[in-house]
Design goal:
binds zinc ion, two-stranded antiparallel ribbon, elongated, 344 residues, 9 strands, single chain, 7-stranded mixed beta sheet, alpha+beta
């Protein structure tokens, strides 16, 4: 009983010594336990009145406690401020830690990383080109002259600066195709680029955001033909959407490609058999085609020697097609609402 009390007092005193911040505090602790009226001294005084067996045991423990406290006091008095600090900062490295909350990449960033990796495997290099562009790169060089009706599809944000003599008006790029001629001017064929970036069009609503993402593939080499284009899309569809998916090409018309195609992929629900969602088994992936000779010429490439294919598809679109995610409002994607984003 008395032995236990002494042990507790000893622990209390040692802990106070460790926490003491000054000489004065150490002295206060010494007086509180070992001083004339200190708690351990009081107990020592009572020992002679105990019966023989208890006396011997308590005496031994009390003396040990007294010695331990005195030694701790001596050590504490000798400690430099640096040593003191080290002791205060000590922590138990074996104690389980608190995990910091871990976030993850945004859905669109996840899709961009995946698309980049898929095309990297077949030798395409990820590039980026300016979001603020000249009319020439965004339209003119792509065989879309100012009065062409095709340009009406690309309602555009223009920047309020005087037009450049050669490059025309300044604008926010409405598609990643603006990177095509830039890439051709920067590199000689063979060219294998995958340009992934932000695009801007003044549409705002449940199915449109004024900023969205596209990925643009461009391959130029000697002897490139539609078979290469189809093979690349087959590969992408299987890698990105799964081994059971197939693609098909439908003739279409774009000013920057000749011939041009709309690319469809078999529906993810019925795998091409036809269902309520897709009707006939196919859903539209995006546009593609063989690069128009006029575009090659603007890029300084001889269309008699080289041919190429190009495609520009929406990142948000393929991502939603893959996941089967049906957003009632596309704007959710960019509202930064964690209740939505944390689900992925
Ligand atoms: Zn279907």
């Amino acid at each position: 009983m008395i032995a236990e009390k002494i042990q507790n007092l000893k622990n209390e005193a040692l802990s106070q010594i460790l926490k003491a911040k000054s000489e004065d505090e150490l002295e206060e602790t010494r007086i509180a336990y070992l001083g004339r009226k200190g708690q351990i001294s009081q107990i020592l005084k009572k020992i002679p009145s105990l019966d023989r067996e208890e006396r011997a045991q308590a005496g031994k423990i009390a003396n040990e406690a007294k010695e331990a406290i005195e030694n701790a006091l001596k050590r504490a008095q000798k400690q430099t401020p640096a040593e003191k600090k080290k002791i205060e900062e000590w922590f138990d490295i074996s104690a389980p830690g608190i995990r910091p909350p871990l976030g993850h990449l945004h859905l669109v960033s996840q899709a961009i990383e995946e698309i980049t990796a898929i095309f990297a495997k077949i030798g395409f290099t990820r590039v980026r080109y300016p979001e603020v562009e000249w009319d020439f790169n965004a339209f003119e060089s792509l065989n879309m002259q100012g009065d062409q009706p095709a340009r009406d599809d690309f309602e555009t944000f223009y920047i309020d600066v005087p037009p450049h003599q050669k490059w025309g008006r300044m604008l926010l790029t409405p598609h990643t195709s603006s990177g095509q001629v830039r890439e051709m001017k920067a590199h000689k064929p063979p060219i294998r680029m995958i340009n992934i970036g932000k695009c801007y069009r003044p549409n705002y609503g449940v199915s449109h955001t004024p900023m969205f993402h596209q990925f643009e593939g461009l391959l130029i080499n000697k002897g490139v033909h539609i078979g290469h284009l189809k093979g690349t899309f087959d590969y992408f569809a299987k890698e990105f959407f799964g081994p059971k998916r197939k693609i098909r090409l439908r003739p279409f018309n774009f000013p920057f490609t000749e011939p041009s195609f709309e690319v469809d992929i078999t529906c993810g629900i019925c795998l091409g058999k036809g269902c309520r969602v897709c009707k006939e088994g196919w859903v539209e992936l995006g546009g593609a085609g063989m690069v128009h000779p006029v575009v090659l010429k603007h890029g300084g490439i001889d269309s008699k020697k080289y041919t190429g294919y190009a495609f520009g598809w929406g990142v948000e679109r393929v991502m939603m097609m893959k996941s089967g995610l049906k957003l009632p409002d596309l704007r959710l994607m960019y509202s930064n609402d964690l209740r939505f984003l944390n689900q992925f």
